[in-house]
Amino acid sequence: MAKKQKNYVVIGLGSFGANISRALTKLGCQVLGIDVNEDNVKNIANEINQAVQADAADQKTLNELGITDFETVIVSIGENVEASIFITLLLKEMGVRNLIVRGVNPMHAQLLSKVGADRIVFPEKEMAERLAESLVSPNIIEQIELSPEYNITEILLPQMLKGKTIKEADIRARFNLHVIGLRRKMPVVLEDGETDFKEDLIIAPQPDSELMAGDILIILGRDEDMNKFKHL
Amino acid sequence: MLFMVKQDGNQKKGGSTSLTDALELGKFYFINQKYDEAVKCFEDINAKSPGNEDVLYNLGLCYEMIGNTARAQDCYDNVLALNRKHKLAKKHLEKLLGINK
Predict the structure, then answer these.
(1) Strand A150-156 to strand A216-222: parallel, antiparallel, or no bridges (unpaired)?
(2) What is the pLDDT of residues A49-75, one digit of tens each?
(3) 3-class SS at A211?
(4) Taking phi first (over 0 means left), then psi (-120 to 50 degrees means alpha), and beta for anything else, what does residue A12 get?
(5) Are strands A98-102 and A150-156 parallel, antiparallel or unpaired?
(6) Domains and CATH numbers, chain B
(7) What is the ipTM metric for this complex?
(8) Coil/strand/helix, residue A80
(9) Which chain B residue is nearest to residue A26, measuring alpha carbons?
């Protein structure tokens, strides 16, 4: 049976809204984009499933577009706080199941939360924090927050652990961190003679697995323990 | 390094090796996971014979391997400035920039 496509509505097709619409489409999702601005709609019309010029503050229009049939609605109206709050309230009252709203400041976020937003995102703030983190700790490849305390972190193997086995590195005892996987790049020669590398994912590496240059460790642990490890 | 490359790009005879040989040596180090040696080799060739897309691409691979993503990006950028149709450099650059991850 074919896998059902996930579907999303993006309200507000400015920079953030347009980019998230493109990204979701690229990931194989069905996307309906809505904006009152004709230029914003025209700019993305050929890149997503459907782009409509409409006023999302009008309940009749939203009904006609079948907004409640979609799994998730993303409200990406940053600059007009009043419209963002009103549309969030309207969508929640209409019965939208999963409502993600772009916030612009803490006060806005508080109001969005009160009117029913399921998740509030601060793209600029989150991007800025990630950029700052990558500048300060360039070895961190990716970080997934499991809870305010625990993360799964992908980190480039510190130079001093190169050539050691997992057991010798003793990351668990020394740092209270758990190596749950390893991404390893292996050089290859392609059919046309060109060089490249392929990447293997090793889940739960054995204690005698040797750590090699370029390995990326996938580590589960507390933030404060990871902070010690990343400065190795 | 033993190789030498003449300014006009021709092979120098007797005792020295050509750009191609030096490139092959760098690839040999790369394939055998001797990344530090490979980087040194490709950097050397690049200093003596700049603007070679094959050298820059392989240098980018080595830097990516050892986790120096900033240098790897520079190398792939330079390859694409020389040849914007270089598929492998484009693929690696997009991956580093978080596109098509």
Answers:
(1) antiparallel
(2) 999 999 999 999 999 999 999 999 999
(3) coil
(4) left
(5) unpaired
(6) 17-97 (1.25.40.10)
(7) 0.79
(8) coil
(9) B100
